[in-house]
């Protein structure tokens, strides 16, 4: 391989880990990702570290657990002392470019209260990235492009995802079958890809590092034609859930609170007038169908990017990583979104294509060992021959890309969630706990999943026999020892994985000693 490699880190927002056709999903249509998987390594049990978007991206880009970076909510500042993948890549001479967003809230210390950086949670960019196309929540550059093409969008981003007016919906389709006002070739997904491919045109012989972020399949669940019609709702499986929302909510106070919160229109799916908890079967199936259509739209644009790299001779000198920030519950347990403890919110895709000859033996491999979002940063730095900072909580996946399995590899994953609301205090009030108590951590292995809350009852699921996490065993006397064992393992994890930046240093006779 040439000495001028490229790095392409693609992150699709809210892409659930099982929604890949090559993995057997009956509705997901991902031929381009499937083709890449045949030439890459796929990690089938890959988990994110936290939700929602800002915290999960912070873990991805810093390689840290939530308990260490502490940017737990969208809008929670990220301490400027933390390094990240972009800052580290600069040490190898790269100017990491961002296409999309990182949902980073800057450290407010030293900023004036009137600084625009403190007005919107997702306007910030992770330090170290240049921004050829920053597309935060307002999506101004894309919306401006649509207006220039003749679209009437007086409210800007607030209007862009409104359903097409006067559209005649067939009786066998739900509300979310109604398409967008813009065409598929003019969507945010296409616009971002177009701009990225333009940027690449003058970089055929220059080493580059790009972090490319698809907004989709993130809600609102509205798709341009023909993606609104890609999957018929009758062909979609109905989500697994209890007989009623009330019964479902008995599993845990947080689940009950989350279900009640979702009853308000547009809470999850903007411009959707319905109550998503009380929605009928057709509407639920249609929403899931539209979600799969949005995945198909992302897959098409992913294919354009890969084909461009092949056409320009860059494919075999580019490390390609495709992943997501978090998953999507898709109506299971009467919920939508990602802010809940179920696997569907944390299980993510991860496909890595290493172009080097030493990776040839592993092409098409599917790794069943557990991997985590925090492994991505050390993997990229290891691939570049850079030192992995002590602050990284993850481990390099490079051995898997060579067809190996590292000895002593982890047999469980750990993830966390901070569900406080410092402004409204709604969860605090509803659950009767303080903001600092609005948190849980989970350990999940092949057999069980244990979820420990700071001030609420724990959860225990027999994942092997109850993969949909319907029965909480935490209060079953027959499982008391199991729950205690997993609580001990979680404590071991917390004790050994706390921040350790300076812990292997010693100052004394002979000067500073550092244990690598």
TrEMBL record:
GO terms for molecular function: metal ion binding; sulfuric ester hydrolase activity. InterPro entries: Alkaline_phosphatase_core_sf (IPR017850), Sulfatase_N (IPR000917). Keywords: Hydrolase, Metal-binding. It comes from the Bacteria. The keyword Hydrolase applies. GO terms for cellular component: cytoplasm. Residues 5-385 form the Sulfatase N-terminal domain. The keyword Nucleotide-binding does not apply. PANTHER family: IDURONATE 2-SULFATASE. This is Sulfatase N-terminal domain-containing protein. It comes from Devosia insulae DS-56.
């Amino acid at each position: 391989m040439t000495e001028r490699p490229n790095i392409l880190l693609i992150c699709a927002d809210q892409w659930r880990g099982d929604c890949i056709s090559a993995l057997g999903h009956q509705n997901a249509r991902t031929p381009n990702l499937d083709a890449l998987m045949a030439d890459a390594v796929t990690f089938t049990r890959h988990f994110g570290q936290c939700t929602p978007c800002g915290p999960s991206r912070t873990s991805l880009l810093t390689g840290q657990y939530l308990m260490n970076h502490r940017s737990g909510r969208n809008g929670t500042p990220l301490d400027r002392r933390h390094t990240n993948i972009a800052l580290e890549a600069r040490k190898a001479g790269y100017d990491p470019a961002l296409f999309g967003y990182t949902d980073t809230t800057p450290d407010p210390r030293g900023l004036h209260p009137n600084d625009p950086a403190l007005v919107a949670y997702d306007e910030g960019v992770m330090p170290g990235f240049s921004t050829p196309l920053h597309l935060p929540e307002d999506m101004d550059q894309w919306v401006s492009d649509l207006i220039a093409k003749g679209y009437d969008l007086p409210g800007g981003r607030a209007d862009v995802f409104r359903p097409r007016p006067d559209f005649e919906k067939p009786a066998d389709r739900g509300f979310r079958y109604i398409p967008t006002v813009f065409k598929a070739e003019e969507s945010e997904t296409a616009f971002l890809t177009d701009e990225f491919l333009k940027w690449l045109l003058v970089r055929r012989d220059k080493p580059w590092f790009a972090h490319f972020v698809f907004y989709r399949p993130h809600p609102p669940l509205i798709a341009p034609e023909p993606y609104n019609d890609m999957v018929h709702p009758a062909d979609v499986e109905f989500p697994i859930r209890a007989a009623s929302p009330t019964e479902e909510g008995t599993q845990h106070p947080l689940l009950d609170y989350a279900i009640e919160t979702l009853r308000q229109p547009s809470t999850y799916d903007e411009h959707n007038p319905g109550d998503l908890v009380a929605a009928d079967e057709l509407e639920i199936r249609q929403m899931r169908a539209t979600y799969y259509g949005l995945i198909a739209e992302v897959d098409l644009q992913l294919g354009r990017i890969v084909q461009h790299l092949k056409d320009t001779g860059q494919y075999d000198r580019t490390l390609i990583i495709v992943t997501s920030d978090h998953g999507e519950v898709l109506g299971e347990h009467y919920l939508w979104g990602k802010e809940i403890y179920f696997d569907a919110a944390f299980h993510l895709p991860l496909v890595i294509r290493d172009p080097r000859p030493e990776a040839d033996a592993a092409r098409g491999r599917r790794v069943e060992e557990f991997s985590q979002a925090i492994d991505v940063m050390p993997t990229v730095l290891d691939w570049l021959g850079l030192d992995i900072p002590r602050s990284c909580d993850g481990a390099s996946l490079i051995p898997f890309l060579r067809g190996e399995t590292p000895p002593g590899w982890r047999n469980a994953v750990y993830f966390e969630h901070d569900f406080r609301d410092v402004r409204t205090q709604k969860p605090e009030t509803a659950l009767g706990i303080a903001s600092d108590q609005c948190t849980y951590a989970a350990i999940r292995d092949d057999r069980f999943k244990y979820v420990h809350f700071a001030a609420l009852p724990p959860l225990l699921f027999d994942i092997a026999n109850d993969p949909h996490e319907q029965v909480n065993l935490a209060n079953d006397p027959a499982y008391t020892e199991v729950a205690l064992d997993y609580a001990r393992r979680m404590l071991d994890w917390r004790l050994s994985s706390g921040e350790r930046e300076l812990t292997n240093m010693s100052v004394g006779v002979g000067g500073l000693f550092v244990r690598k």
